[in-house]
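>> received
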Amino acid sequence: MGRWDGGQYRTTTSSSYRSTVDDVSSGDAAFDYLSSILQTGERLVWTGRPSVLAFARRGIGEFFLGAVFFGFASFWTLGASSGSWLFALFGIPFLLVGFWTLIAPLRYTVRAWRTYYAITDQRMIILRTGFRRSAEVIMPSDITRLERSDYGSDRGTVTVRTIPRLSGNSMQTGATKLGDGFFGVSNFKAAMDAIHQLAASPKVQGR
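>> returned
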């Protein structure tokens, strides 16, 4: 989709961003949303999208947990139904929880289709599109640790321990968490260079 595939930018600022977006990806709702949240004078450095496979792998642990939970709930419900169908109804919520956990890779796959990444000279941004749009902002002052995994062919994943911040409908600050980051992105070296340059820059406080 346009410049989302590991695109690099050198001179684009929020004041000239609209013409650039129209040139490379006219009508792209994700680019429109990104342009709307850039601050005055903020410079776009890199954009990308997650690999669906890399995103789906995040749900493998939940898949195995869900398989065990769903199997046990199915066994219990079938056993209970031999005595009283009313008693067996109590197993339905457990079946639903197990099934929801079981399809975690599929849920992550759908989430990957709705996810976009951007790095500016002030912050990292994770965009979520769909019925509800949101942007998770990672400021340099929020980053406490970086972990990278290289897959070859200039593709990789970088995860960060951060203080989460949500711009748009809500904002959360305080507790740190590990798991935010860019998963399976192309042009990975450029992304890491941009992140290291951002982390080394004077700390910009969250807005």
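>> The helical segments are 17-24, 29-37, 52-57, 60-81, 85-88, 92-102, 104-113, 188-200.
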